[in-house]
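Table S5 (text form). Sequence records supplied for joint modeling of the four-component complex.
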Amino acid sequence: MKKSLQKIIKFRKDRDWKQFHSPKNLAISLVLEAGEILELFQWSKDNELPKDKRKKLDEEMADVYYFLLLLANDMGIDLNKVLEEKMKLNEKNYPANKVKGSSKKYTEYK
Amino acid sequence: MKKSLQKIIKFRKDRDWKQFHSPKNLAISLVLEAGEILELFQWSKDNELPKDKRKKLDEEMADVYYFLLLLANDMGIDLNKVLEEKMKLNEKNYPANKVKGSSKKYTEYK
Amino acid sequence: MKKSLQKIIKFRKDRDWKQFHSPKNLAISLVLEAGEILELFQWSKDNELPKDKRKKLDEEMADVYYFLLLLANDMGIDLNKVLEEKMKLNEKNYPANKVKGSSKKYTEYK
Amino acid sequence: MKKSLQKIIKFRKDRDWKQFHSPKNLAISLVLEAGEILELFQWSKDNELPKDKRKKLDEEMADVYYFLLLLANDMGIDLNKVLEEKMKLNEKNYPANKVKGSSKKYTEYK
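The corresponding structure-token record, covering 440 residues in total, follows.
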């Protein structure tokens, strides 16, 4: 992950693109790239990925990861650390013995 | 990153939530969580994060990372590997000497 | 529709909020509000709206319509007119005799 | 507006596409089309629409309007009526004399 980040930071620096990467613009790009993943599933009837979209999914996942890493870097966020903290909160808000297998509780999850 | 993934897979298993996690639903969640990041910047005038949203950003970044890891896991995708491949493509499509500092070229970037 | 527009323009003017409504910010709001509609369907298993979300859907639909009308107004766009033009294009790109009932063709629809 | 709706309902019927239009899928399409509007502003520095995107904006606005009308129709929602009701709520939640010109209050607006 650290190696991936170094690579994309160098990529950006070589192109002098940081000037376009305000946190707000990176957040916009993150939404748009996530949308491109969702688009692959748009008319799927069985909620699975159509087979002919598999290669495209790899690329779109990479794009979301790319912008997530950049935004995290620019905002000084350690993704694994914030996830660890969030999971503690999730453990508390969603006690396994109370929400297990419950779609009702689950629909409240944001 | 591997440790983070193990933790969230266990979290999901303990709650028997995989049944709700079709790839399509995970893609929807990814878009919605990315939207919650963007919402923090919604009325920002200077394209920066309002100071009082810093803590919230950590949580929303964690949520996007959470769904990205789950979707990658369920689809058998190695994020660092697909990023590496995508960056090769980006290097090819965006040669530094041609697009450097150019917002015009950059606007074609998807 | 014209009456609705007049009402929201007055609402905005009374609050002096136009200063926050750059076209870009309105486009962001449109995405976020559309996301709030989608959120109501997030974990729906049968692709229908959960019954307890019906009232909320009215509100979120109103929010999307609100930002769509504002953005159209500010950009000088007549929604019914651009839709009419787009439908001509759609008629051409999707001839009924070729795409009828075809999900395959339909998946190419953007 | 009624005429626009009649036209797109006929368009859909002629193609037998209603089978793909579950409310959930229409909500997904609405988000994705709103995203295509936002994409036109993605790297805009002055928060305005780049001039060469004007024609494209007409088309994307039409697409959002198309899916908004379809979803409203299928869910039995009168857009002008729900907007009127929502505006009453907005008038109550955002009294002009309290929030006028205030970006601070405005950032709480969802």
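Note: Chain D has six helices and no strands.
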